[in-house]
Request: fold
Amino acid sequence: MASRGEISKTRSKSASDRSGRSSVQSVVHALDIFDYLASSGGEAGVTELAQFLGIHKSTASRLLATLNERGYVSRSPQSGKYSLGMHLVELSRVKLDQIDLRQLARPYLENLVSATGETAHLAVLDHGKVVYIDKVDTPQTLGMRSRIGYRIAAHCTALGKALLAELPAAELDSVLDTDKMVRFTSNTITDPDTLKLHLASVRERGYAIDDEEHEDGIRCIAAAIKDHAGRVVAAISVSGPTFRITREKADAIGRLVGDAARRLSASSGYVAPRAHM
Reply:
């Protein structure tokens, strides 16, 4: 027969197990609340959330009161409904500030090289010029010549056009006013108005093509990357000789690059606007 001490220990362990399970369940419920508020139009009342979680209204009320006290949710004085709190914004801002774009983009560059067999670049726009900040070389003997830190023109490169296409009109005008729009090949666009029309097609298509506009014999496809605030922060590209990247292949590669840019933007915290039905 068990002693009183053994019975007491068993009861204590059982109570501890129940408490642990209850704490874990509360965490799960809190996370479910965040997901629900993020996808349900932004606000919900206690009754609605209790029904969603499958718990008693009083339990939901206590959980929401705790989350509200800690700033994870916010209760409207007018409607009494709850929305996501500012503390979540503060936490997300810390995480977003920790994002290293080069580190984040590296797997995407490597995947593009694996998929296409060509060189992949990551670049930013700096004072109207494109600057390579990372690259993964083609495994093939013949490829595009480039180096990290190299500055190139924006108006005649796929990376540059992908970045320029997303600039506000006033900022684009400012860049074009300072860019001499030098002709590098017979395909180079040197007229600002013509370039603006071209950039409109880039926005519509979702990626830019440099069709031997910067260097004869080289074709490049690029797409812009956005951050959590919707700002264009960089562009990603695939480049190679025209005898391998033919015009027929360019659009297929463009879709790959565009998809990589969208996924990289999402990894950077960007949430694309929902399409209107």
Notes: The radius of gyration is 27 Å. The first strand starts at residue 73 and ends at 75.
